[in-house]
Amino acid sequence: MLPVAVGLLYLGGWFFAALVVVAALLMAFEWQGLIGGSPVGPIGIIGALALALSVVFFQLGRVDISILVVLAGTVLAISAAARSGMSHWWHGIGVLWFGLPCLALLWLRQHEGVGFVGTLWLMSTVWACDTGAYFAGRAIGGPKLAPAISPKKTWAGLLGGMLAAAVIGLAFTFAGYTGVIWTLAFVGAVVAAVSQVGDLAESAVKRHFDRKDSGTLIPGHGGVLDRVDGLLFAAPAAVALLIWGKGIIGSWG
């Protein structure tokens, strides 16, 4: 699926928005199944519609409405779950958890200084972190990072993932990056650390609901949420760094 994702990212516009919508819908339905709800029940449909509509409004240039739709979907999902006697907070958290990162990805792709290459850098940073953490953790081992949440993760794995992300940052400086080379490597390592927080957050939810994977869409790898858990935290972090770190972070020309 990677070539398809990168191809749609390259095309941008409504092509990339369509990819984000599909991913958001799949995550919304997976989330309902993960927390014990019905994936195609009323609450799941409320969340899915809110996510899809928020992307559409964002593409139409109504960022304010798109954010309001996410917030409204969160409130409606919580209200509907409460009326049904369910653990309502979990239903609302899902809409917010996926909605804001999806809008962050669209914002980055449309940003003049980020665009295709910068968004691809972000995704590659998260992928590199996951890969580096896996191999460093297996090769070095050592103290556990969060044994109560994810027994297999180690501090060595986290540092290995951050190092791999920094290397990706250095590699992407040859793609027209106008900032300081070492800055991009540092930012990549920071974003990688944030992505690991996202991974741990999803692991905590799965442990709470006694689930191994978020879904079964990808045989042997779980669901969509299992593949993008780190990106869901990394995308908003990248947006925050661009907004509040103006002058520190460069851009791709």
Would you write up a description of this structure?
By secondary structure, the chain is mostly helical. It folds into two domains: 1-110, no CATH class; 112-253, no CATH class. Helix content is 74%, strand content 3%. The protein has helices spanning 2-11, 13-34, 42-59, 63-83, 88-110, 115-140, 155-172, 181-208, 224-244; strands spanning 144-146, 150-154. A two-stranded antiparallel sheet has the order 1-2. A hairpin with a 3-residue loop joins strand 1 (144-146) and strand 2. Helix 2 runs antiparallel to helix 3, helix 5 (88-110) packs across helix 6 (115-140) and helix 6 runs antiparallel to helix 7 (155-172). The longest helix is centred in the last third of the chain and has 28 residues, at 181-208. It starts with a helix and ends in a 9-residue tail after the last helix. 48% of the residues are buried. The mean pLDDT is 90.
Task: Summarize the helices and strands and which ones pair or pack.
Elements: H1 2-11, H2 13-34, H3 42-59, H4 63-83, H5 88-110, H6 115-140, E1 144-146, E2 150-154, H7 155-172, H8 181-208, H9 224-244
Antiparallel strand pairs: 1-2
Helix pairs in contact: 1-2, 1-6, 2-3, 2-5, 3-4, 3-5, 4-5, 5-6, 5-9, 6-7, 6-8, 6-9, 7-8, 8-9
Write down the domain tally.
Answer: 2
Kindly state the number of beta strands: 2
Largest sheet: 2 strands, antiparallel
Any idea what the shape is? globular
With strands numbered from the N-terminus, the spatial order across the biggest sheet is 1-2
Q: Helical element count?
A: 9
What percent of residues adopt helix (DSSP H or I)?
over 70%
Q: How far is the first residue's CA from the last residue's CA?
A: 28 Å
The average pLDDT value, as a whole number, equals 90
Q: Helix-strand pattern, N to C?
A: HHHHHHEEHHH
Q: Which spans of ≥5 residues are poorly predicted at pLDDT below 50?
A: none
Provide the gyration radius in Å. Answer: 18 Å
Q: Into which percentage range does the β-strand content fall?
A: under 5%
Task: Tell me the structural class.
Answer: mainly alpha
